[in-house]
Amino acid sequence: MASTSIETVDVRAVNKKENRSLYKKREKIQPKKATGTFRRLKWIIMGITLAIYYITPWIRWDRGVGAPDQAVLVDLDHGRFYFFFIEIWPQEVYYITGILILAALALFLVTSLFGRAWCGYSCPQTVWTDLFIFVERIVEGDRNARLKLDKAPMSFSKFYKRFVKHSIWLIIGLLTGGAWVFYFADAPSLLADLVTGEAKTIAYSSVAVLTATTYVFGGLMREQVCTYMCPWPRIQGAMVDEETITVTYHGARGEPRGPHKKNDPWEGRGHCIDCNQCVAVCPMGIDIRDGAQLECITCALCIDACDSVMDKIDLPRGLISYDTHEGQFDKTPGKKLKVRFIRPRTIAYGILLTVVGLIMLFTLLNRSVLDVNVIRDRNPLFVKLSDGQIRNGYTVKILNKIHENRRFHVTVEGLENASAWLQVEGPRKPEMIVPVPADALSSVKLFISAPEKGLEKGSTDIAIVVKDLVSGEVEIQETSFKGPK
Ligand code: SF4
Ligand code: SF4
After folding, report:
1. Which run of H or of E encompasses 147?
2. Worst-scoring range by mean pLDDT, 56-70, 335-349, 467-481?
3. End residue of a domain, out of 209, 234, 259
């Protein structure tokens, strides 16, 4: 029988010998300044999002005496989340889940309509990277000046520009990290503590970590965060379809491309003059003429760049534009964008968004400010008293979610000839009243006794009724009363 031998090759050794790497070295991207409609839109969105981020912790909201007056606050010490008039307790964490589901559905809907609009305009990575590039441009000049500076040997001027740029980046990082911690404590007091060195170590370490991550992600890594670290570019493919509008190069109109001299005819050639302006402004360093790419964040700066070129050569705008997959095959110059907003996919996301939104709204409007929890003693299940009665013990926890002291009346329903008494911090009290301080939880022992006769079933369903003596708000908890069979 003939034998075969397989020759093995050590790929790593071959690569090393031929000085090849499995990983492509990063080419630094120096985007050129763009001007136009989408650049202006990006400036506006950047201004709004940064203002919201930096100003929000300083907005005050009166909640009454003893309650924090910060409009948006994650109060970790007391386990509360405050958002203007909404106050969420740890037991109500489902509201946070609801908000996250709403945000995810809204993102799905926007993505199915406009592609990666979130990535291109309002993702924090995009906003801060844009801000860092703006600083870089102010300090080192536009693309050509920066490319020249990159290649130039170190000199006093280069060192000075680099020093100023990195210093401003670090200050922005510090302000970003600083603003973040203000969401977790009273902002004016925390600022005073941070400045005087009296803040907790966790506050300083959080500011340090966020300063470093903002500086590294926004200043140094930039587009690599979107391309390699963020999962969204891979996921969003499932939300787009042929009718989603996205940044598109109209190859049917642009090709065959090539340089064009003034007065040269346009017949027999495309409208792309291969000027590379669309590539020069791209913060991701890609060429949109190569088609849809994972790296493209649909920031639309290439649209602005190409529209400026079209204006100069007196051709209709829109060689690169927002369009659908179908639209890119339409050769008509300056054609109107046709979008079908109502599609099965957008209807499904819209319905889900409305349903979840309405459920959230309903639960928020009908939110109870009283929470009662009853836990029956299990050891022993019951006690037989000297007078022959059977007694069960319960722990009743009453949560008062408003910023006023309240008094509650406790009664028992469903057990004939029963008597009950409460043990509120020590001695037995005849009246069934539980005082609960503002914004606090009170825990009391409740004892119920009943004649053994009538407890033949072994277990009887009962209800503990807790009623606010002033507002009349009632909370009923069902439990059981155990006796010998
Ligand atoms: S900016 Fe427009 S004309 Fe210039 S290379 Fe890009 S697509 Fe072609
Ligand atoms: S290709 Fe155009 S839309 Fe995509 S990232 Fe680059 S500039 Fe932005």
Report:
1. helix 143-151
2. 335-349
3. 234
Helix residue spans in 197-313 (DSSP H): 201-214, 223-224, 232-235, 251-254, 277-280, 301-312
> 197 and 63 in one domain?
yes
CB of 172 closer than 8 Å to CB of 135: yes
Residues with CB under 6 A from ligand 2: 247, 281-282, 284, 286, 288, 296-302
- Total number of domains in the chain: 3
| CA–centroid distance, residue 319 to ligand 1 (Å) | 8
Are 478 and 452 in the same domain?
Answer: yes
Check if the beta carbon of residue 320 is closer than 8 Å to that of residue 142: no
Residues 197 and 67 reside in one and the same domain = yes
Is 469 in the same domain as 435?
yes
Q: 394 and 259 in one domain?
A: no
Q: Give a yes or no: residue 29 inside a domain.
A: no
Task: Name the residue of 276, 301, 307, 312 whose CB sits within 8 Å of the most ligand 1 atoms, as the mutation to test its pocket.
Answer: 276
Same domain, 274 and 227: no
Length of the chain: 485
Kindly give the residue spans of alpha helices, DSSP state H, lying in 197-300.
201-214, 223-224, 232-235, 251-254, 277-280
Do residues 423 and 448 lie in contact, with contact meaning Cβ atoms separated by under 8 Å?
no
Ligand approaching nearest to the C-alpha of 282: 2
The structure's pTM equals: 0.81
Residues 6+ apart with CB under 8 A from 389: 449, 450, 451, 452
Can you give the residue range of the structural domain that contains 248? 241-329
Q: Which among 184, 206, 234 is the end of a domain?
A: 234
Q: What is the pLDDT of residues 328-379, one digit of tens each?
A: 777 676 667 777 889 999 999 999 999 999 999 998 888 888 999 999 998 8
184 class by beta-carbon count within 10 Å (0-12 exposed, 13-18 middle, 19+ buried): middle
Going by C-beta distance under 8 Å and a sequence separation of 6 or more, which residues neighbour residue 392?
A: 376, 377, 381, 382, 383, 447, 448, 449, 481, 482
Note the pLDDT tens digit of each residue in 366-384: 888 899 999 999 888 999 9
Classify residue 141 by its DSSP letter: -
DSSP-derived secondary structure letter, 295: T
Phi-psi region of 291 (alpha: psi -120 to 50; beta: other; left: phi over 0): left
Are residue 185 and residue 48 in the same domain, yes or no? yes
Q: How far is the CA of 143 from the centre of ligand 1 (A)?
A: 17
- DSSP 8-class letter at 283: T
Residue 111 pairs with which residues in a beta bridge? none
Is the preceding omega at residue 259 within 30 degrees of 0, hence cis? no
- Which protein residues touch ligand 1 with a CB less than 6 Å away? 249, 254, 272-278, 289, 305-306, 309, 319-320
Q: Whose CA is nearest to atom 8 of ligand 2?
A: 299
d(CA 204, CA 201): 5
